[in-house]
Design brief:
hydrolase activity, alpha/beta, Rossmann fold, 6-stranded parallel β-sheet, 15 helices, antiviral defense, 3 domains, 26% helix, catalytic activity, acting on DNA
Length: 551
């Protein structure tokens, strides 16, 4: 029976992907078409559903193409969110300090949910499950990857620096080794897509549209006879576009610009305020304390952040953390200026469930550009001033042009670090290169992504719930507990056999010159089999309602 017949209850776009995969029962194995996908679905369409439904199907089927599914996401919180939705499945997770009972460091489970960082480390021979071994069994997680269908979710968030180079390097290598993959995003960008296509093979882009032809505007494409199907050029490479007409109901969002930070006059019903830095979010929270707001950002203990029930909050103040993996809806949104992809992701939380036909978005032109590119922010503001861009559908609504067309015109194509790309390729294909060669590379680049995240803790952590994720590049601003030149720290201490099953958390000290030196030491194993888990911060700088303040 064809795969798509099992999933008639799903949305049209997801069913089309399954139809194109064309998995059919063969002699002992199910055979699927050798295709790779780029999915452009609106926010809230249910991209993750594709992985969950395929994982259910794989629990009773084996294919000649893949025997497991690896779902890769940008953040640990998103891993946990997908894990909750997959509670009925035999899934496993992999990220830093994941619960041992759910962990699959070698990616051997049928359904693995992991972060980009863990995926890339396993692909390039770090073997995250064996921190004490130079050679080890790094071929185990690589074997698991080579026998998987890999879903890179929210891949647009990997669009700069080391992140983009590492992702394109991974796609290039997976294509050469015959591993099928899916890349999904609600914010299509021609530059990103064409780089993927030129480093892959047999790529099909599936887009949910209102009218046939919407997704191939400003593309070099020709029709293939079937309505909504095209062959397109991306440089020297060709790819196929398949459009799916699905009348996705979206509200009409009215955009208004405001130039001052007194937000109380714009609050109406359930309101979300999104700003670009944690310190700014805390400051606004303190100003609006009388309105009983809820505050969410990245500098909370995991346990304290989980206690925040957003469904009970009428006023929510947030940072960019709301852009990914937060399933909530508001009546009104106030957002600080940001590039168009970020604005679109934020608006995905405005009338997410179509409670009204129209909604209000206020864009605060704060004049602060950090942490974004100034030219991309300015281009976004200019594009939105006419209030003629649909921020809820990539290809347009209510007579407004789609945000995909605007994004193509204003977003700059990220550069690839050719030296890093070539060094990763060598590690991928040379069987004699080991974890030590990756370590040499990381001594130079720190991480394979743009995010060097460290853990902070007020007290000795009993689990990941007690940790505070923190941007390692800002460590000099953290209120660390010090004794002279040494910083108090927590370490994972392993037994003499190096087993990861029994790990004790102990206190100790660490010295480092700057964040780059800390990055090197964060990965190193000490002579007595200890690995740095996190740094201790001063208790008086942490508040369960406001999170961690900087010194």
């Amino acid at each position: 029976m064809p795969l798509s017949k099992d999933f008639t209850h799903l949305r049209e776009g997801i069913r089309k992907v399954l139809e194109l995969m064309d998995c059919k029962d063969g002699n002992g194995f199910t055979e699927c078409r050798d295709l790779n996908f780029i999915l452009n679905f609106p926010t809230g369409y249910g991209k993750t559903t594709l992985s969950i439904e395929l994982a259910k199907w794989l629990s009773t089927h084996s294919t000649s193409n893949f025997s497991r599914l690896i779902h890769v996401v940008p953040t640990r919180s998103l891993v946990e969110d997908i894990a909750k939705r997959s509670a009925s499945l035999k899934y496993a997770v992999q990220y830093s300090f994941a619960p041992s009972e759910l962990r699959s460091p070698n990616f051997l489970a049928r359904f693995v949910i992991t972060t980009y960082d863990s995926f890339l480390l396993n692909l390039y021979k770090a073997s995250v499950g064996e921190p004490f071994s130079v050679h080890g069994h790094y071929d185990l997680p690589r074997f698991s990857i080579y026998t998987s269908l890999v879903h890179f979710d929210e891949f647009h968030l990997m669009n700069e620096g080391n992140s983009w180079t590492s992702l394109i390097g991974a796609i290039n290598h997976l294509s050469k080794t015959g591993v099928n993959f899916v890349l999904s995003s609600a914010t299509p960008n021609r530059g990103l897509e064409e780089e993927v296509i030129n480093n892959a093979k047999d790529v099909v882009k599936v887009s949910v549209v209102r009218n046939y032809g919407d997704s191939v505007k400003n593309r070099e494409c020709r029709g293939l006879g079937e309505e909504g199907e095209y062959e397109c050029n991306a440089g020297k490479a060709k790819y196929k576009v398949v459009e799916v007409k699905d009348e996705v109901k979206v509200p009409d969002i009215d955009v208004t610009f405001i130039d001052q930070g007194d937000f109380s006059k714009y609050i109406d019903g359930r309101t979300v305020i999104v700003v670009n830095t944690v310190d700014k979010a805390i400051s606004i929270y303190e100003k609006l304390r009388d309105l009983n707001p809820c505050l969410i950002h990245s500098r909370f203990k995991v346990s304290d952040r989980k206690k925040i029930d957003l469904d009970e909050c009428q006023l929510i103040i947030s940072t960019q953390v709301i852009e990914v993996g937060v399933d909530m809806s508001s009546d009104v949104m106030i957002t600080e200026q940001a590039p168009l992809p970020s604005i679109v992701q934020r608006v995905g939380r405005l009338l997410r469930r179509n409670e009204k036909e129209g909604g209000k978005l206020y864009i605060w032109t704060s004049g602060d550009y950090a942490p974004y590119d100034k030219s991309e922010v300015d281009s976004t503001l200019n594009a939105l001033k006419g209030n003629d861009v649909c921020l809820k559908d990539p290809y347009g609504c209510y007579g407004k042009k789609g945000y995909a067309e605007v994004m193509d015109n204003i977003m700059t194509k990220p550069e690839i670090n050719r030296r890093l790309f070539e060094e990763l390729d060598k590690i991928s294909i040379n069987p004699f290169l080991t974890r030590k060669d990756l370590d040499y590379l990381l001594d130079k680049y720190c991480t394979l992504t743009n995010s060097f995240i460290i853990n902070l803790a007020v007290d000795k952590p009993d689990s990941q719930e007690d940790l505070i994720p923190f941007n390692g590049e800002m460590v000099d601003k953290a209120p660390l507990e010090r004794e002279g030149n040494k910083v108090l720290a927590f370490f994972e201490k392993y037994g003499s056999d190096g087993s990861t099953d029994k790990v004790e958390v102990v206190e100790g000290y660490i010295e480092f010159r700057d964040w780059k030196d800390l990055c090197r030491k964060y990965r190193k194993v000490t002579y007595d089999r200890k690995i740095l888990l996190g740094l201790k911060v001063k208790r008086e700088y942490y508040d369960s309602k406001k999170g961690l303040r900087l010194k």
